[in-house]
Specification:
4 strands, alpha+beta, 59% helix, Glutaredoxin, 2 domains, 10 helices, four-stranded mixed beta sheet, 211 residues
Amino acid sequence: MIETIKNLLKLNKKEPEKDVYEKINDLFDSLGADEISIQVGEDLIDFGGNFGGRIDDLRTKMKDKTGLIIPKVHVFENLDFQENEYRIKIRNEEVFVGFTVPKEDYALNEITRSLENVCMENIDKVMTNEMVEKYIETVQRNNGWLVWYLARLIPTTGIKVILVDLIKNGKSINDITYIFEKICEQATKTRDIYTIPDVYKIAEKIKLELK
């Protein structure tokens, strides 16, 4: 009986709430694939121990500036590379090749800057449908009715198109609940019982409001 009570107490005990970064990290870990990776030559791998801090700073910067949370970035050595060469991949697709000076601070700054540019230029690849689901979960905790109603109007892929378009055009989705409210508002205005709302027109309307 005592053991049964202990087990019940464990079941009822609430685990500490994870922050957004932990939830996103758990998501990408569960996918079992590197969403973003950086491969560097032998002369650059010595700086690898300090890549983590620079990348974490970049993730925080991008989250604060745009609302986009980029996934974990893994750094690998490739002995076949030329001197000072590095390459960036998104889900195994090579999107950038660069060369840098093999001085630690300079190299870390340049590679981090390249990573930021790559993420901004390839937002539609960086932001997966799974990530959009995480944004949806965040909004649902604040306003379950909003998510329920929006799901009847626009599919997850449509929401992704709008979020990507906003970020590409310099708009922040940091206040994600507010953004979802605006999406819902515009989708309702353009609603047609026979067609799915035009997500590009919705994005244009929201961009004008966010000015």
